[in-house]
Queue: 4 jobs
Job 1
Amino acid sequence: MSKVQIRPKGKSRAIRSNVINIRLGVFFDGTGNNKLNIRDFQNNKAPWYSWSTVKMKLSASYKSGFSNIAILSDYYNSKPRAGEYYNFVYIEGIATAPRKKNTDSGGSDSLLAAASGMGRYGVNGKVQRGCELVTSKICDIIKGKGNTIIGNLKLDVFGFSRGAAAARRFISCIEKPYGDTMEGFGKLVIRYNVCLRNQLKKSGVKVNKITPCFLGLFDTVSSYGLNFENDVKELTLGVSHPEKVVQLVAGDEYRKNFALTRINSANKAGEEIILPGAHSDIGGGYCSSEKEDVKLAVHRGIVYRGYKTLNQLLEEGWLLKGNEVTRTVSNKYSYIPLHIMYGYKKEVFSSRLLNRYMILPALRPIMNRLSSVRTKPLYRFSKPPSVAITPLFSKGSKDYVLVKSIRHSYLHLSAKGGIADSPAKNNRRIIIDDNEKKS
């Protein structure tokens, strides 16, 4: 900690100011993901007829598994190191209710935010909450230190799904708000403060420099408003500011409402890695073991999960037998993307994470292969104008056999029909380029 002297005009006496540096991890969870709600559900001892139990049963966020964002936030360093103060903030996922204190009881999920990414629990609402929590955390750090100025506020920001969109918006609006900062619902208009600098000034916190050091994204899906096609301008999803940007992409995700927003605007600072698996195989959040119905409909002809033919399901390894009615899928594969993201910033995380979330023996071969995926990719993005995710392995190749071997027990088929989970045309994921100017 250094000290500077500020000499106000007309006064001979100098005011001493402490100058400190702070590094914060900022974690934006995905839609319907809330680690506090999950813990409440796991520890619930209230009777079945109590409001707390009923609320948990009605809100999906209580019954899911922990996402990779939730896990990473638990292992971010919070002790001073090398002359810097470290800490973190966790922003609960879109559509889930915030709490004033972690010890408060949780609220009910918002259907509006889940469907549209709008409202107080939507993307803008969570970005505003992120700004408030970061400011509050800084106030906690400097409390009792007299007149303190933050010399450099370094940020490591992480997000999953719509939380990845919120993370991108949070960084792009650090110094100035851009895009849609107001949302209207009939006569009700909500204005959001999505600018961290403005929130710091409002709270009287002095920060000389804000440095977005790292942006770690798990499969950005914005799905904002009534038109889900492209939200780059509205939510300022460009990623040209961080020193380093990493996005882990779901190679087996192709639901219509889960369009991927790329990180092309990061240029040389960006790395985009396509991994096997559906959206939440990459970002986490599935329960430890889930049953998937193989057949989705029979009254108008058989429709299989994933909107694939029975031959495709068998040939690609999703099914082992043609007469399977259900298949049971583990969530342990999601630990591999967790380990990969950890590897990019392991200096800010506790290594205890690796022991707590160990890779199963059955998944070690694919983990070993994915450890070299940065230089030997499994998938690629085809060239414009018709961008798609395509595998680089051919049928019968070593990589093909390896990926096929884990599908039945470890990779989910997320396309299962309904408004939220219907497939895109030809089971081909919609890809959005983020290289657009701010509005």
Job 2
Amino acid sequence: RKMMRVTCGMLLMVMSGVSQAAELHLESRGGSGTQLRDGAKVATGRIICREAHTGFHVWMNERQVDGRAERYVVQSKDGRHELRVRTGGDGWSPVKGEGGKGVSRPGQEEQVFFD
């Protein structure tokens, strides 16, 4: 559960610097146990942007897994625990190209959701 809070905090930090006009809302998922099953959603996010835009981009400032733009490894402070995280959702695509980070979603909607 502590790891879920750390993950959500990192997403919030990254997204808050993207646009002064964008709002980010994160909701932690899962139970109170210490074990997570493979594929479990640890958080769901919603981005709101009322200004004109052409899309959204979500990423984490963490080590990527095998160079894949949408997959990260998050470690506990003491380094003894790690959580492999994948960002995405309906309509989201991994950022292509060398050094690509995260997922993007083109569009002009005022709000979008991601996992």
Job 3
Amino acid sequence: MNCLVIDDEPLALDLMETFISKIPFLNLVAKCNEPLLALPYMNQNNIDLLFLDIQMPDISGIEFFKTLSKKPEVIFTTAFSEYAIEGFELDAVDYLLKPISFERFVTAVNRAKDYIDFKNNKTTGNKEYFFINASHKIHKIFYKDILYLEGLKDYTKIYLAGIQNPFLILQNMKYFEDFLPKNEFVRIHRSYMVAIDKLNTITKKVVTIGGHTMPVSDHYRDRLFALIQQ
């Protein structure tokens, strides 16, 4: 996977370069200390993964990412945890809080690889089920049984009809947002995704499925109402 690092701190750039050099499937195309300096590399190369610092002098990483017409998968890096929510709302693969440990870095890039591999080799279109690894077992999950999903940063809980306890999966919500059929499931909040045919009540602020109530955020409301009106 071709990757690119943008960070205004020289030590942070060097650390990321060292980490990347230890991962066989990562190829560092360039490291840049200003976002705008990265544009030529992004235009001339197929960048699969962007490591992007958030707080920088001229333009923040978040604002820079919003300007990109062709967006690679992104892992945001920053020393300030308060930016995490906005980062995830931009569908970041992950969010690394400085100082970054190599172990945490490996977790993030493995998640990115899984997601990119999935996008490049999506074969679930005609299937009615998929498999997950949870509680030391492989489980077969039918799409029709899913009620809703709840995101917990690095993990996702999958709630199924007829099963009291949800499955806890080491994948974030972005993965499932792209993985699940878009005409059957819709994200309604940074922390929630629901099965459209399981919805009982819908308002501009909340939805209910069975006895569960979930918030609807402004960011996802239009998509929700567009789908239910089809």
Job 4
Amino acid sequence: MSEYSLEFALGWESCFEKLDKGIRERVWKKIQQLKVLPHSRHLRQGFDFFVSEVGQYRIAYKVDEQRKVKVVHFVGDHKEYDKWLGL
């Protein structure tokens, strides 16, 4: 299995910095695991995003297969996630 590099979309850090320190550490560990983990589930049909979960928190990212890059766009709890999606 090949390893992916990580990139972060503009503004993602504002979501990340809102998290408590303990949660940030858990989420960061999961983000680092995205380099080697297979893709998670699709956000929902019609969206390009994949979603990985850490407890009640969600990490939304896109995959660029040609460049072997996963781009993290959002991290937050399920309520913030729904708001980010516009639900």
